[in-house]
Amino acid sequence: MLPLLLLLLATAHSLADKQYVPTLATSPLGGLKTTSTFVLEQPRCAFTKVQSDAVIWLVVAIPKAVANFSNSVGPGTPERAFQGFPTSTQAYMTLNTTLRNYPCPKPPGETTVLRVGSETSCATDKMRPTCNGPLLSPGPYRVKFLALNGSKPVAETAWSKPITLKTALPSSSIPATGGGRSTGMIALTSILSILFAVLLAGLVAMLFFWGSHARGSSTFSKPEAVTVRRYNTHHVYNQPAARL
Description:
Blueprint: H1 2-16, E1 38-41, E2 55-61, E3 91-98, E4 113-116, E5 142-149, E6 152-156, H2 177-180, H3 183-217, H4 234-237
Antiparallel strand pairs: 1-4, 2-3, 2-5, 5-6
């Protein structure tokens, strides 16, 4: 009985002894933290003493769940379902993959980050308890990686430092656009722009109508030929002048 107890204590101690600490990615592209997601570095070279077919899970928890977190509660159970987080479930498990997908050392040029909270399609689907759904509040959150051989925990990392997401600004705190112009001024400018567009369209239509009318009135028909008869007045000119 004593050797078994010592073995269990040694196993628990080895799980807690991992030196790797999950950290946010250091990509210069930005977007490492949003209002519902954050990006982690993959745990490369964190499980060098674990068999390659072990499954690595990401655990996301609220800070108060860290002290009493139990590795024996497996993924997919109601206690580890994303859909209950963080109200009825204080931690959930997601992004499972085998250790083969975390080769050590990392091949050159390979992407080595994980985005937590990127799946929106399964956020409310209780049939997907391991969903990597968007986080509903700024947090803070703490994460760790846990290696399972079947249902047995075989290795884990340390917990990360608290991670706080960005907070969306309320609409009332957003300053007026356009150099501080008031809402009324913006509305008046919009109305005047619409009226100007209507007037311009009317002017173009009027010019087109006048042009068409002018072209129609300037079309003349060919005048008919006029025949002028000439009369010989020899009977007048050949008569002798009347004598007085």
